[in-house]
Amino acid sequence: MKKADDLKKMVAEKYGDIAEKESSCCDSACACDDYSFIGDSYQSLEGYVPEADLGLGCGLPTEFAHIEPGEVVVDLGSGAGNDCFVARSLVGPLGKVIGVDFTPAMIEKARENARKLEFKNVHFVEGDIENLPLDPDTADVVVSNCVLNLVPDKRAAFRETYRILKPGGHFSISDVIINGDLPKDLKEAAELYAGCVSGAIPKEDYLRIISDAGFKNVQIQKEREITIPEETLSSLLSPGQLEEFKTSNLGIYSITVYGEKPQEPCCDDECC
Q1: Residue 178: which region, alpha, beta or left (left: phi > 0; alpha: psi -120 to 50)?
Q2: What pLDDT sits at residue 272?
Q3: Does residue 256 belong to any structural domain of this protein?
Q4: Which of 82-91, 151-160, 260-269 has the lowest mean pLDDT?
Q5: Cys bridge to 200: 1, 29, 176, 254, which one at CB 3.0-4.6 A?
Q6: Helix 4-21 crosses helix 104-117 at what angle (to 10 degrees)?
Q7: Number of domains comprising the chain
Q8: Does a structural domain hold residue 254?
Q9: In 3D, which of 37, 86, 33 has the Cα closest to residue 57?
């Protein structure tokens, strides 16, 4: 497997190209037309902004996140701002939404979208999910859409998610997991990694990482199988790799996972 720094550089370059070309993956910068077959449609959701939807998600985490008016929501891997703008419609004018992304071109595109919409309570900051530039106990809710599978150190990412959540806060994260083993050669396919597949890990490992970070009441809110079109696979893999993939019996799934940060013990006269 490639080194973590190499993977981060590759992902940053790919998603920087996507942001600058204002498309989800539709020219020579990418190995396939797009990854829209992975995601769900946002078009019926309040707050949806088409210009911010680059077709890079694999679920609708805001739909399951129990976001309330006035809350602070943090979106990890916010891209052009799609989930942030949907979250804003839920927190209302008294709430706040913070998007974090480590691709400068994505941050600039998201900020441009927010300026056009004249949103004053949606902010975008550049940062690494493994070391978030946010204070502890910042968020009531954390969301993320098809991003943590691209993070090499998922344990660090969930520890940071725990750190920035307020006691009693929760997350709803859509991501890609696998059932079975990804063939070794395919783990080296850079485009397959950036397309959210070879960065994925088995569901049981994913849920264990979440629990190890300290989260409670962890549950899967939605799960569906993803079928990668053969033309997409053919554009990403050599004939030998394609045959290996077909015979691997690998199951690829989109899941939306929920977890809570426990309330801190209360020791004053009101509750003890």
Answers
A1: beta
A2: 43
A3: yes
A4: 260-269
A5: 176
A6: 40
A7: 1
A8: yes
A9: 37
